[in-house]
Write a structure and sequence with these properties.
alpha/beta, nine-stranded mixed sheet, 29% helix
């Protein structure tokens, strides 16, 4: 069966999950008997069986955490684990311009010829997953894109790319939870900050400093675009024993860390845990997707959180 590119966002506002307008363009599973006719379905709610499975998995994790004597290294050596990750994977990343343009069209509005001076920062830039699609699309002579990652290996991958143009971009090593903003970026100078699967790598006690840095760098009226893992996503439920550091915060097999969020946590971060008046919530959404393996007749429930927050 031929595949088609995604045409519409599959993220629904958490306060309006029943909206038919929000589901326009989505693939909806209206007939349970048709579940294996496609590889993926949007906006699929759990049944009682899946809920019971999730709770049993979480209970198992809590009863089998990372041994206390092993926990410190995952906090102290976090950059080293990410360096090893990028050394192993380097350019094995799919830079999906289509997905970005659907979910965060604000980014590509900055690339238009008459958009005017725009400054964008991709935090956790990895191999340039947002930076390079923007540069490839860019027609704006006054657009500049920053890329920051606390993995020096990731930054090296970006800088060595043939797409890296120092007149339009600057990639550097920086930790979002650092006590200072990057020297290359002036306070209140950015139009958009991109946080795609970034906050989940931070320990919860690092969130407040990270939010302070974000708030400091953004212009009044600037926007944060956010995407990350949702609570009880497949990636969380399938963790083996000995991977839980603390509630909803895990280590993967390669030593990198990951947290799984609720929409309430994310809303609180951008409203009550930042300098006031904080941010206006323009989107606080959940993307629930049922992925199926038709050959093996397997069902896999994915949950991602997505948001847009504008600095007041």
């Amino acid at each position: 069966m031929a595949t088609t590119k995604k045409q519409a966002s599959s993220a629904l506002e958490v306060d309006n999950v029943d909206s038919e307008k929000g589901k326009f363009g989505s693939r909806l599973l209206n007939d349970p008997n048709a579940i294996f006719e496609h590889n993926a379905w949007d906006h699929v709610e759990w049944d009682d069986e899946q809920e019971q499975y999730a709770q049993s998995q979480i209970a198992r994790h809590q009863n089998n955490p990372v041994p206390q004597e092993d926990q410190a290294k995952y906090y102290e050596q976090a950059p080293e684990y990410w360096n090893k990750f990028y050394e192993k994977n380097e350019n094995r990343f799919f830079k999906d311009r289509n997905w970005l343009s659907i979910e965060f069209p604000e980014l590509f509005q900055c690339t238009l010829p008459d958009a005017g001076p725009k400054r964008i920062l991709e935090v956790g830039c990895g191999a340039g997953n947002t930076l390079f699609p923007l540069l490839q699309e860019n027609q704006n002579p006054d657009l500049f894109v920053y890329g920051a990652d606390f993995s020096s290996t990731a930054v090296d991958v970006v800088r060595k790319s043939e797409l890296y143009d120092t007149t339009k971009a600057n990639a550097f090593v920086w930790d979002l939870a650092s006590s200072e903003i990057p020297s290359a970026i002036q306070p209140e100078s950015l139009d958009i900050i991109v946080l795609i699967f970034v906050f989940s790598a931070l320990a919860p006690e690092q969130w407040d400093q990270a939010l302070l840095n974000i708030h400091k760098m953004l212009k009044p009226g600037g926007m944060v675009v956010f995407r990350d893992y949702g609570r009880h996503d497949l990636a969380q439920l399938r963790f083996k024993d000995g991977r839980l550091l603390r509630d909803n915060f895990y280590i993967r097999g390669d030593g990198t860390r990951v947290y799984f969020f609720t929409s309430e946590e994310i809303a609180s971060m951008f409203t009550t845990r930042v300098p006031q008046p904080g941010f206006a919530i323009e989107q606080n959404a959940v993307d629930r997707r049922l992925i199926v393996n038709r050959k093996k007749q397997l069902k896999m429930y994915r949950i991602w959180m997505q948001g847009k927050f504008r600095k007041l």
